[in-house]
Specification:
three-stranded antiparallel sheet, two-stranded antiparallel ribbon, about 260 residues, 3 domains, Phage baseplate protein
């Protein structure tokens, strides 16, 4: 179950105003989800360009986002989740350390699955491959499966059926099921915790949404710029150029003027 998140608390790591605005722009860009994720990673990590984020596997992209999310807010963090067994709401407290196993786990470069009696090798998709499929309505799950197929005697980084081992014909429905298995084997989700329900003692899965958590801790940038621009007539560029301590003083004054 996905938890209900509390109101954002101040982070032990501060993201400057311009970076927070860039994060917001990345998250609301008029692009598909994979493209927005690449842009967001490039904003959050100065050493990763958007083109490099595109080449990361789906698991690597999840790990980068979780790493940054764990730097934001106060931890341990408190959430509310619903048990799928007894339907009772429960308070859940999680710490950064609870997520370390999913960050540090090494995912295999490839996995083997049986298709129409053949044992074939597949790898996890990269960001650019997810973007390609999402952008081209003519490409379905079967097409992506062909891209992820690793022919015999090829490295896991190789693309598609280029070396003589043809991928058997498969429907999009069957391809969907195979893609789920590939992601489970090569790109297991990060930020997932198995917890015991305090009411019925059954195990529940808690899914931490890194992008939603990051969003909650950067969205205040819009309010900061709006308040200062209305109060003093400053441009966004001028507001972003202010040191954080000065900006907080002006914000206090501007909010006092409104009251």
């Amino acid at each position: 179950m996905v938890g209900a998140y509390p109101e954002p608390a101040h982070s032990h790591v501060r993201i400057d105003l311009q970076a927070r605005l860039d994060c917001i722009a990345a998250m609301i860009a008029d692009e598909n989800a994979a493209a927005r994720t690449s842009r967001l990673i490039s904003v959050l990590f100065e050493d990763i360009a958007e083109s490099q984020a595109d080449r990361l596997s789906s698991n690597q992209r999840q790990v980068r986002l979780l790493q940054k999310a764990l730097e934001l807010g106060r931890w341990p963090a408190h959430f509310v989740t619903t048990c799928r067994h007894c339907k009772v709401l429960s308070d859940v407290t999680v710490s950064r350390q609870d997520f370390q196993d999913s960050i540090q786990s090494q995912c295999p470069a490839s996995c083997q699955l049986t298709l129409n009696g053949q044992t074939l090798t597949f790898r996890a998709p990269t960001g650019i491959e997810e973007k390609t499929v999402l952008e081209d309505a003519g490409l379905g799950s079967a097409a992506l499966l062909g891209i992820l197929h690793v022919p015999r005697d090829a490295s896991p980084a190789a693309n598609g059926c280029e070396d003589g081992e043809a991928l058997p014909a498969v429907s999009d429905e069957d391809a969907d099921a195979l893609l789920v298995k590939i992601l489970e084997e090569c790109s297991p989700p990060v930020g997932v915790l198995n917890l015991d329900c305090p009411s019925c003692q059954n195990q529940i899965r808690f899914w931490f949404d890194s992008i939603d958590w990051i969003s909650r801790h950067v969205w205040s940038a819009i309010d900061e710029v709006t308040v200062l621009a209305r109060a003093f007539g400053w441009t966004e560029e001028a507001i972003c150029a202010l040191p954080q301590s000065r900006r907080e003083l002006y914000l206090k004054e501007a909010r006092g003027m409104v009251q």
